[in-house]
């Protein structure tokens, strides 16, 4: 079937250098054929534009391509834009307007927002406000079956666009850029987002627009910041691309995920927004329900609660399997270092970690021999949950939050590592960001899974995996398919992004003498006693 492929050019701050940009466009078109339009972000006019601009305004010269520009970013250039709602400035040069959507005859949707983010009220004429962004979002999101726009044009960068991304060079995206533009990009899900003003070129790795395991797959976004026209550093200011309108694309092709796709940099904004999940079609199953399900090889699906139901009989508590050799963690084993044990329940116990990241780094361990959380019987799992709740209360009383992780890989007995982190050191979002960023650096796909989901919904017994849980219930999961760094969890927590103790990443470097370990265990037991349900049950 015929699909309208549009060939577009996008450019950064022209700053009134019209001869330079249009000369470059003529050269490109002579070499590569015609382009449909030129989209200009950033400052189209400069403070000294008048003489050059007069030739185009009067018709003495004509732009070689239909050119669409954003409005003023400073008071000095406001006079070049006579109509705030958009107008033709000269033949082939159109001011798009303050904000809105431009739809070409091909069906391509281009959303645009002129100006910079207002820092005061009422906002100056060259600035946009939260109201502008809200109205632009509403006009688009109200459309039935809205999936996103093809292109978004803004002058400022979006705040935090560098999160989970390739290096942004000297630009600190935690301080630079607009929060409102980030909010707009998070909601409009453009396939391409162009910005300028920072006098540099930056092409971000594409990012995904859906929560893996929680939403049906969607297209990715490519953010591209362009430098100023004719800059002496030879930084790229003109970007050529071909695009088929989203409305003409095969849905499966549209949502293809490139290999270098990253997590969404605006995850915080998306989580704060009201949840509006795309409805699932009759053929689709919720992604979280049977994700990573290997049971298709066994000829039947695993029910969503993670238990096999051949009949309606209640499941009998199964005896834990016996270890194949000596186990360091089975409580009945002579190998257990019992001086580290700080609490013993009916099915589980707590022990201080040997060579812990901190003196109150503890392990939750089943008394019997189970390899992973997925293997646990319901009564053991119930007691694990009670220990997690007690530890949350205990650590919060000390101004800390815990991070829990499990590595079901090259280990024969389940160890849930529980490490406290001071509340004033970092937020739960900082912790997740540190894990996801460091995972990406090592080509590890660490995915967020629904807070109230059961781990058995995404992993089957015997499947190697790495799993992180915060005391808020938020969870990250990686299915291990090949090699996996054994100290990954510790390394992330010890890194500069979190505890800033990289020298403690390897437990062997932190192991204390037995008398010191015993003293730490006694201190922990004493402090934990008011929260220890095993002493009351």
TrEMBL record:
Domain annotation Cwf19-like protein C-terminal: ranges: 442-533
Pfam families tied to this protein: CwfJ_C_1, CwfJ_C_2
GO cellular component, one term: post-mRNA release spliceosomal complex
Chain intervals with Basic and acidic residues compositional bias: 302-312
GO biological process, one term: mRNA splicing, via spliceosome
Domain of life: Eukaryota
Region of interest called Disordered, as start-end residue ranges on this chain: 254-283, 297-323
GO molecular function, one term: RNA lariat debranching enzyme activator activity
Domain Cwf19-like C-terminal stretches: 316-424
PANTHER family assigned to the protein according to its UniProt record, in alphabetical order: CWF19, CELL CYCLE CONTROL PROTEIN, CWF19-LIKE PROTEIN 1
Family: Belongs to the CWF19 family.
Protein name (database record): CWF19-like protein 1
Taxonomic placement: Eukaryota, Metazoa, Chordata, Craniata, Vertebrata
Gene that specifies this protein: Cwf19l1
């Amino acid at each position: 079937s015929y699909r309208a492929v549009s060939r577009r050019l996008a450019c950064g701050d022209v700053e009134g250098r019209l001869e330079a940009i249009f000369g470059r466009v003529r050269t490109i078109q002579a070499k590569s054929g015609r382009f449909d339009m030129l989209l200009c972000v950033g400052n189209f006019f400069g403070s000294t534009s008048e003489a050059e601009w007069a030739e185009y305004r009067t018709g003495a010269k004509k732009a070689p391509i239909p050119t669409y520009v954003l409005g003023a970013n400073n008071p000095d250039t406001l006079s070049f834009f006579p109509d705030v709602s958009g107008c033709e400035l000269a033949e082939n040069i159109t001011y798009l307007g303050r904000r809105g959507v431009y739809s070409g005859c091909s069906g391509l949707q281009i959303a645009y927002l002129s100006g910079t983010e207002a820092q005061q009220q009422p906002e100056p004429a060259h600035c946009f406000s939260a109201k502008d962004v809200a109205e632009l979002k509403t006009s688009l999101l109200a459309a039935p079956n809205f999936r996103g726009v093809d292109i978004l044009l803004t002058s400022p960068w979006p705040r935090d666009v560098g999160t989970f991304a390739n290096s942004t060079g000297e630009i600190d995206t935690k301080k630079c850029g607009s929060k409102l533009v980030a909010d707009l990009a998070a909601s409009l899900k453009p396939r391409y987002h162009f910005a300028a003003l920072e006098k540099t070129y930056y092409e971000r790795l594409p990012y995904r627009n859906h929560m893996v395991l929680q939403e049906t797959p969607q297209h990715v976004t490519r953010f591209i910041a362009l430098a100023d026209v004719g800059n002496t550093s030879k930084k790229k200011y003109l970007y050529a691309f071909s695009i088929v309108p989203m409305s003409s694309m095969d849905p499966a092709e549209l949502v293809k995920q490139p290999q270098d796709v990253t997590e969404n940099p605006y995850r915080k904004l998306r989580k704060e927004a009201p949840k509006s999940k795309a409805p699932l079609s009759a053929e689709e199953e919720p992604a979280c329900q049977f994700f990573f399900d290997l049971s298709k090889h066994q000829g039947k699906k695993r029910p969503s609660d993670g238990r096999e139901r051949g009949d309606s009989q209640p499941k009998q508590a199964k005896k834990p399997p016996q270890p194949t050799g000596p186990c360091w963690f089975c409580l009945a084993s002579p190998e257990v270092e019992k001086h580290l044990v700080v609490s013993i329940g009916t099915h589980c116990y707590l022990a201080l970690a040997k060579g812990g990241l901190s003196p109150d780094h503890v392990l939750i361990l089943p008394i019997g021999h189970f390899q992973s959380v997925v293997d646990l019987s319901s009564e053991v799992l119930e007691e694990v949950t009670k220990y997690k709740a007690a530890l949350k209360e205990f650590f919060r009383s000390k101004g800390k939050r815990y991070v829990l992780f499990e590595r079901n890989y090259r280990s024969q007995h389940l160890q849930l590592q529980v490490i406290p982190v001071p509340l004033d050191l970092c937020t739960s979002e900082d912790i997740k960001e540190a894990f996801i960023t460091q995972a990406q650096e090592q080509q590890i796909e660490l995915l967020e899974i629904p807070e109230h989901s059961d781990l058995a919904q995404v992993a089957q017994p015997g499947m190697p995996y790495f799993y992180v849980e915060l005391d808020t219930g938020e969870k990250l999961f990686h299915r291990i398919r090949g090699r996996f760094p054994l100290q990954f969890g510790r390394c992330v927590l010890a890194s500069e992004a979190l505890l800033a103790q990289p020298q403690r990443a390897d437990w062997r470097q932190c192991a204390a003498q037995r008398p010191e370990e015993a003293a730490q265990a006694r201190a922990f037991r004493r402090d934990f006693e008011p929260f220890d349900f095993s002493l009351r049950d």
